[in-house]
Amino acid sequence: MAVSEIPVIDIAGLVAGDPAASAAAGRAMREASERIGFFYVANHGIPQALIDSVFARARDFFALPEEAKAAVKVNKRHRGWIGHGGAKMYTGAKVDLKESFVFGLELPEDDPEVAAGTPLMGPNQWPEALPALRDTVYPYYEAVLGLGQSVLRGLALSLGRDAGFFAERFARPLARGSLIWYPPQPPDLGQDQFGVAPHTDYGGLTFLYQDNTGGLQVLNAAGEWVMAHPIEGTFVVNIGDLMHRWTNDRFHSNPHRVVNTSGRARQSLAVFYDPGFHTVVDPRDLLDDPTQAKHAPVACGEWVVGRFDKAFRYRAPTG
Ligand SMILES: O=C(O)CCC(=O)C(=O)O
Ligand SMILES: [Fe+2]
C-alpha cells in the first residue's frame, strides 16, 4: 500500500471569503483534483460538536429494531433506510456489507417541482421512533451544503470562471446525505467482500466524514490502492463522475472502496453534492475551445437516476 498522496487543504480563508486565500485554496484543490481526485479540507467551519452528535444519533438509528428501520424503508425518491444487501456497485460484485440511511433536500409535496413528479425530489422519511435524528442530521446536512458552496467557489476560480459558476448550478441541489454503518467484517468472507466495492461516485463532489476506524482506500494514478486515513477534524472531498465530465476529464473521478477489517463497526457520513436536477453538465462551459469537448452534455437528474437504477436493488423491476 503506497503512502497517502491525498493533501490536507486549509480552507479557513476560502470559507471566510478572503480573495487571496480563496485563490490559493482553489489552486490546491484543483491540483489535487487533477492528480488523484481526492483531498481533505481542514478548518471548514462546521462545529465538531454537530458532527459528533450526528454520529451518535446515527448509531442510535442503526441500533433500532429491524421493524423500526423497515418503517422508513427507502422509497422511490431514494429517501430512507437501505438494509444490508440493498446496494451493489457493479454487476458481479458481492453486495456491500453496510446499511445506510439516506436523506436530501426537504421539499413539501406541494412544491411545484415535487408536484410535477420530478424524480428524487420531495420530503424525507424520518423515523418516528427517533425524532432527534432529524433535529441533528438536517442542520448538519445544511451546513455541508454551505461548505459545498465554498468549495465550489474555490474550484470555479481555479478554472478561470466566476466564483459563482458552479455554485449557482447547485441551487436546489440533488444532494443526498447518507449515514453509513459498516458492521465488522469477518475475515472469512473473502478478498472480494467489501464494505463498499470499488466504484466511482456519480455526481459532483462528495463530502465524507469518517470515524477513526479507517478502511477507505483510493486508487492512485499508478494503479495502487492508497489509504485515505481518518484525519480528525477534516472532511474527505472527492470528485464524482459529473465533475469529471464537466471538466473534460481534467478532474479525476477516482475508484475507491471500503474494507472494514478493524473488528468493530465503522461509521461514516457522506453527502453526495450534485447539481440541480435540471442542470446541464456540458464540458464546453469550461473550455476555451469548445470543439475539444470529449463528452456530450447530460442533464444531472437523468444521469443520477440512470446510475441509481443500476446500483440499488429496490429500484430493480423485480424489486
Ligand atoms: O464510507 C466511506 O468511507 C466511503 C463511502 C463511499 O465511497 C460511498 O458511499 O460512495
Ligand atoms: Fe464513494
Question: What characteristics describe this protein?
Answer:
alpha+beta; 9 helices; binds 2-oxoglutaric acid; 19% strand; Jelly Rolls; 4-stranded antiparallel beta sheet; 319 residues; globular; iron; ethylene biosynthesis; 8-stranded mixed beta sheet; single chain; binds fe (ii) ion; 31% helix
Describe this structure in words.
There is one protein chain. This protein has 319 residues and is of the alpha+beta class. The chain has a single domain (8-315), classed as Jelly Rolls, CATH 2.60.120.330. The chain is 31% helix and 19% strand. It has 9 helices and 14 strands. The chain has helices at 12-16, 19-35, 48-62, 66-70, 112-115, 131-158, 164-169, 241-246, 300-311, and strands at 8-10, 38-42, 80-82, 99-104, 176-182, 196-199, 205-210, 216-219, 225-227, 235-239, 256-258, 266-273, 280-281, 298-299. The strands form 3 sheets. An 8-stranded mixed beta sheet has the order 1-2-10-7-12-5-4-3. Strands 6-11-8-9 form a 4-stranded antiparallel beta sheet, with no helix packed on it. A two-stranded antiparallel sheet has the order 13-14. A hairpin with a 5-residue loop joins strand 8 and strand 9. Helix 2 crosses helix 6 (131-158) and helix 3 packs across helix 6. It is globular and about 55 Å long. The N and C termini lie far apart (39 Å). The model has no long low-confidence stretch (mean pLDDT 95). Bound molecules: 2-oxoglutaric acid and fe (ii) ion. 2-oxoglutaric acid is lined by residues 180, 196, 201, 208, 210, 216, 256, 258, 268, 270. GO terms for molecular function: 2-oxoglutarate oxygenase/decarboxylase (ethylene-forming) activity; metal ion binding. Its cofactor is Fe(2+). Pathway: Alkene biosynthesis; ethylene biosynthesis via 2-oxoglutarate.
